[in-house]
């Protein structure tokens, strides 16, 4: 899979590097794409159509209106994800998708029972 795609803004086609995307947010018939470094674009494309360019192993749709880059998530819990100073709320399905796809290292607690 390619690590970029192009969007059309006015008369130009602009290359968007997947690694630079922080999140994409639905805005009715447009989608806000926010990139590292403060750049953002609002092409005339729905979030659902844009989502085909986002690998499921690197991006997660946390609710109807938001897709996050998993590598940009600073912290998350059962209700929300935080990227920088922005807080994003989960739907139930979004939380399941994140837990399914996020690489999570956990410490397994061993049983404290004594062997006989």
Give a written overview of the molecule.
Helices cover 12% and strands 40% of the residues. The protein is mainly β. It has a single domain, classed as OB fold (Dihydrolipoamide Acetyltransferase, E2P) (Beta Barrel). The strands form 3 sheets. The protein has a 5-stranded antiparallel sheet. The model has no long low-confidence stretch (mean pLDDT 90).
Summarize, please.
By secondary structure, this protein is mainly beta. It has a single domain, classed as LytTr DNA-binding domain (OB fold (Dihydrolipoamide Acetyltransferase, E2P), Beta Barrel), CATH 2.40.50.1020. It has helices at residues 47-50, 92-101; strands at 4-9, 12-17, 21-27, 30-35, 40-41, 59-63, 66-69, 75-76, 80-83, 86-89.
- The dominant shape is elongated
Q: Just name the CATH architecture.
A: Beta Barrel
Question: What is the chains' assembly state?
Answer: single chain
* Alpha-carbon distance between the two ends: 54 Å
**Would you report the number of β strands?**
10
Beta-strand portion reads 35-45%
What is the topology, as strand order, of the major beta sheet? 5-4-3-7-6
What is the CATH topology classification name? OB fold (Dihydrolipoamide Acetyltransferase, E2P)
What's the Cα radius of gyration? Answer: 17 Å
- Uncertain spans, ≥5 residues at pLDDT below 50? none
Q: What labels describe this entry?
A:
116 residues, mainly beta, OB fold (Dihydrolipoamide Acetyltransferase, E2P), five-stranded antiparallel beta sheet, three-stranded antiparallel beta sheet, 2 helices, 10 strands, 40% strand, elongated
């Amino acid at each position: 899979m390619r690590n970029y795609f192009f969007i059309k803004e006015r008369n130009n086609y602009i290359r968007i590097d997947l690694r630079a995307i922080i999140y994409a947010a639905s805005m009715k018939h447009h989608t806000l794409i926010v990139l590292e470094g403060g750049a953002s674009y609002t092409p005339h494309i729905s979030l659902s159509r844009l989502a085909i360019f986002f690998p499921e192993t690197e991006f997660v749709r946390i609710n109807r209106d938001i897709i996050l880059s998993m590598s940009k998530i600073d912290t998350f819990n059962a209700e929300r994800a935080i990227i920088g100073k922005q807080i994003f709320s989960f739907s139930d399905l979004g939380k399941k998708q994140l837990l399914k796809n996020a690489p999570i290292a956990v410490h397994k607690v061993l049983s404290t029972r004594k062997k006989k």
